[in-house]
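User: Some background: our group keeps a shared notebook of sequences we're curious about, and every so often someone picks one and asks for a predicted structure to add to the entry. Today it's my turn. The entry only has the sequence so far, pasted here. Could you supply the structure so I can complete it?
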Amino acid sequence: MGKKALFIVDVQKDFCPGGALPVPEGDKVVPVINKLMEHFEYVLASKDWHPPKTKHFEKWPPHCIQGTEGAEFCDGLNAEKITQVFLKGTGTEDDGYSAFEATNINLEEYLKQHGIDHLYVTGLATDYCVRATTLDALKKGFKVTVVSDAVRGVDVNPGDVQRAIEEMKQAGAEFKTSDEVIQELAQAEHV
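Assistant: Of course. Here's the predicted structure to add to the notebook entry:
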């Protein structure tokens, strides 16, 4: 049986309240993610890591620029529990929505090398980077559970978040609350 990993998508200061591109209630995912971390051997995270000039900023306000405070993890996130960080959106031409586009470490290879076949996805934003990472994971044959109370979306166009959730479900992602995930993991330990 394969291993499970908690995957934290882009829980960075620029996406939390007061940041350059805040996700509504983005900070609300932090305590839920911290609670989940206690139940996983592997806690992986992605970060937007944009250069100061990129085509990506033609679509979005500048955010998560390499080496800036805005690119750091949100305040309160228990970052010392994170075992590996995947940097994405590092080029001038790429958006880097999916963590599978990470340039510092190949995420698919990392998961396979560590025997991880099931990702529990959390983070920001449901309708962009969470969606892209989830869909890529499913396409590559990984099982994905999106932790519904540990994600938040932006809904640039009303209904975007709901459409993204439906798209992820149709592609094969499960959606569970953090309490359901913790209960499921506890039961698996006793089997």
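Suggested note for the entry: The chain has a mean pLDDT of 95. The helical segments are 29-37, 107-113, 126-139, 160-171, 178-189.
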